[in-house]
Specification:
Layout (H helix, E strand, L loop, with lengths): L38 E4 L2 E6 L2 E7 L2 E6 L4 H8 L7 H9 L19 E5 L27 H20 L8 E7 L7 H22 L4 E8 L6 H9 L3 E5 L5 H4 L9 H13 L3 E8 L7 H12 L9 E6 L17 H16 L6 H10 L12 E4 L4 E3 L12 E2 L11 H6 L26 H6 L12 H15 L20
Helix pairs in contact: 3-4, 9-13
């Protein structure tokens, strides 16, 4: 088994002076949740018992091969370097990527695709008590994004995407990804409309230039209080994905208008209107320390008040622990749970998911289709955030003057040349523990391992919340993939002793 040498670098007590070193002193080499569930045979290769037979799992690119119980010992010996396998089984291992090289040593386009998060405004109509963005303006004042910055961002995306095809020989279909954030982005609805029209035209022109279909991909994160029929029709027409924030029974206490009035009624009405219009929706709920022991009540509230006890009407729903932003004190959100409370929390989320209310299903299906992602967090590597002034940051969670990467208006700007991007690129599954030894490393949803949370709430980019969101995500992914059989057809694809798969 591999070994990674770590430098013993102490972590800072404050985050105001820049990024913490990517140190992992004291991190476990493997996720403790895997014990008794998965057996690691080699780097990236795991074994799991499955209905009397076994599944051989490649973590990146993610793939699964069914093998018979009588083949297990020979497979174990093979990966330990003590034996050979039949020609048929060797071919099956090769086809299903079990013998691929270490992804950290292969020249692949891991960081070639790039998307941009436009902070079209730093103004917000709410005053949320747990806002990591200091009310939306990140402490930098309220402003709307001028067209010059929007044009500069789209031009940068076009240059990067063209390079992907013309210099790197990419043969697939890339997206021109634009994510709208704030503040509350619908305060700057005209800026959104302009960016969408410009982005769609740029995608059409780029498609002709490179001879491949480049699709515009739009995403918006919103409190949903400013949506109306016209804006919902706009979102539908331009195929947006919309993330709506609803925080449960205490929503009105946590997400108030500046006047002091609660925003829940508006948010739920907009959620239902989006669903009725068949807009692609996601729902996010911020979990605070007081919610963890009361998670059953929170979930029952969502079932009754949001989904009207109709699991078929549910959408991709994430529950994420609270975190700080630049204005916070390191560690205040780090441990919002105790082990006993977390056991109950995970169990209730499993029951919620088994009842038909989707948690990770959408993300897992999407990532399995591509083999997963190499970077633990794409902030600063595969995505960047642009402020109204054109300053570039790793993502909307890292709008911090100490982490500025350059200006989108600089014609020579390349975000990957910045020290911040190079540091962030170290958070990948080939180097980060315990992720390298986790069967779910390439499938892990972003809310499980948010780099901003690691930095601001845990004290360093090398920190992994092993006993928190990591534990929650591992248990949910294990249940959804293997116990609930999200993996299609594997119960019928166990290899026969002849070395061939069943039809």
């Amino acid at each position: 088994m591999f070994r990674i040498l770590q430098n013993e670098v102490s972590l800072p007590t404050k985050h105001a002076f820049g990024m913490a070193p990517l140190s992992q002193a004291g991190m476990p080499s493997s996720p403790p949740h895997a014990e008794g569930r998965f057996e690691q045979l080699a780097d990236w290769v795991f074994l799991r018992k499955f209905r009397g037979d076994y599944l051989l799992i490649r973590s990146f690119p993610f793939n699964v091969l069914g093998i018979l119980a009588e083949e297990v010992d020979s497979v174990r010996d093979f990966f330990a370097g003590r034996g050979t396998l039949s020609e048929e089984l060797m071919e099956a291992l090769r086809v299903d990527h079990m013998l691929d090289m270490d992804p950290g040593k292969v020249d692949r386009q891991f960081n070639s695709h790039i998307s941009a998060i436009l902070l079209v405004t730093t103004a917000c109509n709410l005053a949320c008590t747990h806002c990591f963005a200091s009310g939306g303006d990140y402490g930098m004042g309220k402003a709307h994004m001028p067209r010059e910055v929007i044009d500069g961002t789209i031009a940068y995306l076009v240059r990067q995407t063209a390079k992907l095809y013309e210099e790197e020989g990419f043969l697939g279909e890339a997206d021109l990804g634009i994510h709208f954030f704030g503040g509350e982005p619908f305060i700057a609805y005209e800026q959104m409309r302009y960016a969408v029209e410009a982005g769609e035209q740029a995608a059409r022109n780029l498609s002709q230039t490179v001879g491949r279909r480049v699709r515009p991909d739009f995403f918006v994160t919103t409190n949903a209080t400013l949506l109306n029929p016209e804006r919902i029709a706009f979102l539908k027409r331009h195929e947006f994905t919309v993330l709506v924030s609803i925080d449960g029974p205490d929503h009105d206490e946590r997400r108030r208008y500046i006047s002091g009035k609660g925003s829940l009624a508006k948010a739920i009405a907009a959620f239902r209107a989006l669903r009725e219009a068949q807009v692609t929706i996601r729902l996010n709920t911020v979990i605070r320390d007081i919610d963890v022991p009361n998670i059953r009540e929170v979930l029952e509230w969502f079932q009754e008040e949001v989904y009207s006890n109709e699991p078929s009407a549910s959408i991709y729903h994430t529950f994420s622990f609270e975190r700080e932003g630049p204005a916070g004190t390191v560690g205040s959100c780090a441990n919002a749970y105790t082990p006993t409370e977390l056991d109950k929390y995970v169990g209730e989320l499993k029951n919620f998911d088994v009842s038909g209310y989707q948690l990770y299903e959408v993300a897992l299906r999407n990532k399995m289709a591509s083999g997963g992602t190499f970077y633990k967090c794409s902030s600063g590597v595969k995505r960047i955030a642009i402020s109204p002034t054109g300053s570039v940051y790793p993502c909307q969670g890292f709008i911090d003057t100490k982490l500025e990467m350059g200006s989108i208006l600089d014609p020579y700007f390349d975000h990957r040349q910045s020290a911040v991007s190079q540091c962030m690129s170290g958070r990948n599954i080939a180097t980060l523990l315990p992720c390298r030894n986790c069967v779910f490393s390439a499938l892990c949803p972003h809310n499980v391992d948010c780099a901003a949370r690691a930095h601001y709430s845990l004290g360093g980019l090398g920190e992994i919340d092993v006993n928190g969101m990591c534990r929650v995500g591992f248990d949910l992914m294990d249940t959804i993939l293997f116990e609930s059989e999200l993996l299609p057809g594997f119960s019928a694809s166990i290899r026969k002793s002849s070395g061939k798969k069943e039809k």
